[in-house]
Amino acid sequence: MAPASQMSYQKDERVLCFHHEILYEAKILDLRHIDPEDRKSPFEYLVHYKGWKNTWDDWVPQDRLRKFTDENRELATTLRREAEAAFRQKNVKPAVKKRGGSDRSSARGSEERQTSVPGRGTKRARENDIEKEESFYVRPSVRIVMPDNLKSLLVDDWENITKNQQVVALPAKCSVSQILDDYVKEEKPRRTSTADLDVLDEIVMGIREYFYKALDKILLYRFEREQYRVIRKRWEDGNGEWADKGPLETYGAEHLTRLFATMPELIAQTNMDAQSTNRLREELSKFTMWLSRNSAKYFSTRYTNASNEYIEKSRGAPNPAPATATSRLV
């Protein structure tokens, strides 16, 4: 977005406007400086939401507005579907609890029942644990848009590796680094201000950092860890085609999509405020929708059958992340 002190929208312009997590079609009725005596103060805009009563007309800051483009309209439609699905899921009646049962999970209850007679201070420790758990659940949730075809590709990926005992051929035909570079190249012309370009650069830099740190910890199935061990040795040796390569230059769309399936849980562990969380969700959802449209170009059709020797070695490979991306699909 342009700096708020610059007028990026005009009176009577058709726009999209955020109201909580959903983008609504709206029209700008008026605009003004927040401080009438300071011509450099940010602009705010009086918007009328299409189909809503005039009583809902509202003065909003510039960062809640988006241009009425095909891409943003697609995002608005997707966000609405996601919100409706989340609402339906939220209103499903929970299972009836057993008499005297805890409102915690059965696993947690089982752990507590197996605990020996509590000693001094145990009650306070348990209360602290509950406080920590409750503070975790009140953090802003992030439902990143995951298009259906990406979900299907993740499931196919899971079956190829865990059931068919295959691995993705590496290096990938299009690496994570190349995919992100292509996205930036295509997205930059749509960014009309320095601030918007800065957001794009920051988001892509964050994706790179998360992927680099998360790959060997939560993005690999156990069957892939032997392959990772061999490739990591090649990175360290740095010979031939492996010179100056690492995770971002070796792995591709399959593992990148697994990262986005785990993103809601990763972001929930941060301390971002609601406004920052919503903007991050918007940016990440734009990327997944772009990747979905270009899936034929970036996803591999090359899965290789593992040798008997590889299968034997993979059985002894440690697995620090038994719950992988597919299990987190919603």
Unreliable spans are: 97-121, 129-139, 322-330
Strands ordered across the widest β-sheet: 4-3-2-1-5
User: How much helical structure, as a percent, in the residues?
Assistant: 40-55%
Secondary-structure arrangement, i.e. CATH architecture of the largest domain = Orthogonal Bundle
Mean pLDDT: 80
How many E-type strands?
7
Q: Tell me the name of the CATH homologous superfamily of the largest domain.
A: MRG domain
Sketch the topology as an H/E string, one letter per element.
Answer: EEEEEHHHHEHHHHHHHEH
Can you tell me the CATH class of the largest domain? Mainly Alpha
Count of runs of 4 or more consecutive helical residues: 12
3D shape: elongated
Structural class: alpha+beta
How many structural domains in the coordinates? 2
Describe this protein's structure.
The strands form two sheets. This protein has a five-stranded antiparallel β-sheet with strand order 4-3-2-1-5. Strands 6-7 form a two-stranded antiparallel ribbon. The protein has twelve helices and seven strands. The relative contact order is 0.13. It is 50% helix and 12% strand. Strand 1 and strand 2 form a beta hairpin. The chain has 330 residues and is of the alpha+beta class. It folds into two domains: 75 residues, SH3 type barrels, CATH 2.30.30; 181 residues, MRG domain (Enzyme I, Chain A, domain 2, Orthogonal Bundle), CATH 1.10.274.30. Keywords: Chromatin regulator, DNA damage, DNA repair, Nucleus, Transcription, Transcription regulation.
